[in-house]
Amino acid sequence: MGLLLDYMLADGVYLQARLEGEKQCLLVIIGATPEGKKELVGFTDGYRESAQNWRELLLDLKARGLTVAPKLAVGDGALGFWKALEEIWPKTQAQRCWVHKTMNVLNNFPKSLHGKAKSDLQNIWMAETKEDASKAFDLFIEKYQAKYPKATHCLSKDREELLNFYDFPAEHWKHIRTTNPIESTFATVKHRTKRSKNCLSSPNSFCYGV
Fold first, then answer.
1. pTM of the entire structure?
2. Non-local CB neighbours of 95 within 8 Å, separated by 6+ positions
C-alpha cells in the first residue's frame, strides 16, 4: 500500500560513534500525513549528506510506495538534500528549518546581541500571518543590515523558503517550520553512541510505512 504525505522533514543526524574512521551520519526522513500523523518513513547511513545519498533514499521511498510528491519538504541548508529533491520531486515546495537558520544567523552576531537578535527572529516565524511575518522580516533587515551585513544576508537569501509554511493550514505551522522532531527522535541514539568508538557497521536503507 502506498503512503500519502503532505509534509516531509529531512535532516542528517551526526553520531559521535565512527564507522571505518569516519564520523557516522544518518540521513533521516519523517513524514506527516494529511491527518497530521507523524512517522519515521526512512533512514540510511550517509557520507556528509551528499546529494547521491539523499537521492538513493528518496528513490527508495518512491519505489516502496511514496509515488505522490509531498506538498512541502522541511530541511536545513544542506545542499545535497535540496539537489536530490529537485531531481526526484521538483514540484515539492521547500521550507528551511527555522531552528537551523536561527543558529546560522546568530553566528554572525556578537554573543552580547544573541538574545535581542533571537527575539527579533522569533517575531518573524511566530507572526500571526504571512503579511505580519514579512513586515517583521523587513524590520530585522533594516535594523541590522548596516552593522551586521553577513547576518542579514544569511537570512534574506532564503526569504521565500523560510516563509513558505505560511501558505499551509495554520494548525500545521508548528510542525513544519523546523526539523526538530528528528533531533528529538534520535536524541537517545546520539546519547548512547556518544562515547563509542568504531562500534557501528554500515546498515542498508530502512523504510517504514511504505
1. 0.83
2. 72, 73, 74, 75, 161, 162, 164, 165, 176, 177
pLDDT in tens, 34-58: 676 788 888 887 666 689 999 999 9
In angstroms, the Cα distances linking 48 to 23, 25, 69 are 9, 7, 25
Query: Has residue 146 got a pLDDT over 90?
Result: yes
Measured CA to CA, the distance from residue 5 to residue 68 in angstroms comes to: 8
- HEC-encoded secondary structure of 96-117: ECHHHHHHHHHCCCCHHHHHHH
Q: What angle (nearest 5°) sits at the alpha carbon of residue 76, between those of residues 73 and 82?
A: 55
CA 46 to chain centre: 16
Cα distance between residue 79 and residue 89, in whole Å: 15
| Partners of residue 19 on adjacent β-strands | 22
